[in-house]
Amino acid sequence: MRILIVGGGTGGTIIANNLARRLATEIRKHKASITMLSASDRHMYQPGLLYVAFGQMMPDELYRDQASLLETTIDFHVDPVEEFNLDDNRVKTKNGTVYNYDVLVIATGSRIMPRKIPGLEEGSETFYTEESAVSMFKSLRNFEGGKVAIVVGVPHKCPIAPVEITFALHDYFKERGIRDKVEIKYHYPINRIHSIENVAIWAKPQFDEMGIEYETLFNVEEVDVENKIVKSMEGSEYNYDLLISIPEHHGEEVIEKNKLGVDGWIPTDRHQLTMEGHDNVYVVGDTTNLPVSKTGSAAHFEAEIIAENIASIIKIGIPVSEYDGKVYCFIEAGRDKATYANFNYLNPPDLKPANKSMHWFKMSYNQMYWTSVRGLL
Amino acid sequence: MSETKVIDACNTYCPGPLMELITYMKQAEVGDTLELLSTDQGTASDVPEWVNKIGHEMVSSEKIGKIWHIKVRKAK
Ligand SMILES: Cc1cc2nc3c(=O)[nH]c(=O)nc-3n(C[C@H](O)[C@H](O)[C@H](O)COP(=O)(O)OP(=O)(O)OC[C@H]3O[C@@H](n4cnc5c(N)ncnc54)[C@H](O)[C@@H]3O)c2cc1C
After folding, report:
1. How far apart are CA B69 and CA B60, in angstroms?
2. Is the ipTM of this complex over 0.85?
3. Domain that holds residue A55
């Protein structure tokens, strides 16, 4: 059984390591093999970008060599896939190599698309890439007061990021002693301040207490860079001095080009995590079209189900587990306190007041992540 | 006439039905109708509020069993 994993981020790495352990005997007897193809020799801990944007972490702290995270039985190549030929069970890479498989896992993640909105790329700071997070920190350091606007595109990964960045901005300006010179205005696409109702209920009184203004039903249509005005599709506008955006995301270009899913989102079975119409193709993490948060946490829980099922199919011929939509997210509520949201398809999260120990748990998790993708946690 | 695209947003808390509708609206062509399925009670009022504010067209909204079926036409 040839298992091919395309993508060496959170989801792909957890599946590969988990399978390498479950199938150790089969691999030794040459009855199974695991190959991983990725676009990079490095693995980034993306949630760390939020700290880079405030000068609390250096970019180099976010990376590990991908090969060092993988079990030695995994055949790893840095050679991105360019062509998917699902009917013939094979892919072709940038180097021109063809890989045949029996089971394919697509774990290629997602990317920001600021260019979808006129003016957004030039007119705003963001923190979703290393370069942009560093640039945002530089802008924040130079900012001496004025109007800061936060705007949010749909869909985007890490749905908690809009509120986290807002709390962090409040604390950052407060620490610098200029909070009274800064107006912070949060804009959100739907009719409450967060997509999860209990997060909205939890965050609203804190926004009020911190003097953070908010406008809901605000979907960015364009940014007038010259006059520093952000305009919404709903017809309102805001004059800013510093614009911080969470841009709309798409899946990777290779997914769109190969027509595996509109905007790079692959139609995926909610519970089996197989690609619709292809029982030997699994999809994990951000690139699914599932109605779940695009988070490392969702990718992690999905990865465990996929690994368990691929192994059980090899061992007993059938899958044994179903994904229930589980997500567990830390929520940083400023520089020194945090809470969490734990939910699945059927049960909403019940948010507790933020406290210091959850913040320290999150800080520890920032390191524990590496143990987690190795499949040891 | 183009086919109605069905968006199954039943039993989901995040991103939630209205976020799902906004995502699929971006992919649709002007004139397309989308049918949003939702088990969330709030959807019945949240969706028309957004649709009216943005200037799309509400086609219909009905609850069949436990599921809301909300049809919206992309107008711009
Ligand atoms: C600022 C920020 C904050 C975040 N905060 C949190 C948080 O607090 N909690 C949380 O759970 N999540 C958080 N996330 C989200 C989380 O990082 C992602 O959801 C997660 O990494 C998704 O995992 P994935 O495996 O789907 O994709 P990724 O981890 O992005 O991996 C994609 C992989 O595919 C590879 N690839 C791309 N194209 C190809 C190709 N053509 N061929 C082969 N390989 C390819 C890439 O090189 C990469 O290795 C945050 C993200 C950001 C940016």
Report:
1. 8
2. yes
3. 2-109+252-327
